[in-house]
UniProtKB/TrEMBL annotation:
Lineage: Bacteria, Pseudomonadati, Bacteroidota, Cytophagia, Cytophagales
PANTHER family (UniProt xref): ZINC TRANSPORTER ZIP11, ZINC/IRON TRANSPORTER
Membrane topology designation: Multi-pass membrane protein
Keyword vocabulary terms for this entry: Cell membrane, Membrane, Transmembrane, Transmembrane helix, Zinc
One GO MF term: zinc ion transmembrane transporter activity
Protein name in the entry: ZIP family zinc transporter
Residue stretches spanning the membrane: 6-29, 36-56, 68-87, 140-163, 183-207, 214-235, 241-260
Location(s), subcellular: Cell membrane
GO cellular component: plasma membrane
Biological source species: Hymenobacter wooponensis
Major localisation: membrane
Spans annotated as Disordered: 94-121
Protein family per UniProt: Belongs to the ZIP transporter (TC 2.A.5) family.
Amino acid sequence: MNFPTWAVAGFWGLVSGSALLIGAAIGYFLQVPQRLVAAIMAFGSGVLISTLSLELMEEAYEKGGFDATAIGFVGGAAAYTFANWLLARHGAKHRKRSGDQQKQERASVNSGQKEATDSGDDNGMALAIGALLDGIPESIVIGLSMLAGGAVSMVAVVAIFLSNLPEGLSSAAGMKKAGRTPQYVLLLWAGIMVISGLSSLLGYTIFSGFSDNVVAATMAVSAGAVLAMIADTMIPEAFDVAHNFTGLITVLGFLVSFVLSKMGE
């Protein structure tokens, strides 16, 4: 049975996003050592960096040339950085941290709010928006990867799945220490998983009729946003615990993604 291409795009976006929910469940209900969380985070960072370099940016360059790719890449990074800066001011700076940073940040935000005793969850919305900010560009990548020949890039799916797992794991571990309920954590990441599937679907359907230059710029925007996310959130969490081993583990993740990309040729 042949399914519509847009449905396939949504399905693979959902699959890659499911790693967020799986990781969140593991991080919340199991006692995962912080060093292991940091190692997985570093590995996922290497996988994503390799995928951005060898798959996404290369495809964007072939479609739209240097100008569209460069403008989109820098624009995506700038947009993510600005949005991340705004979220940090509202209590979502440490959303991917697995230690006590989220707990301290939540207490700091609540202490500065007059209505804190009524709501008790002043940075909850910032956390949710931050999770969306991190997840949507990755999912759009999957939909865009299908525009060339109608087949999904399994390298991109595997890379995003491998990077999403430690993101959900680390963030949920930190949320638990900050006093978040399991219902809050699991519903948040389940929602992000669904939105990931929709983002992938929209990435394919919306841009299927656009010119190569527009598609190239959009791919580069996603790449720039994801790379900025890695540098701002994933690498700091990994280095904070793994320290001198972070670079080596990141390189191993890069190598795995490189091998997968060559196997898919």
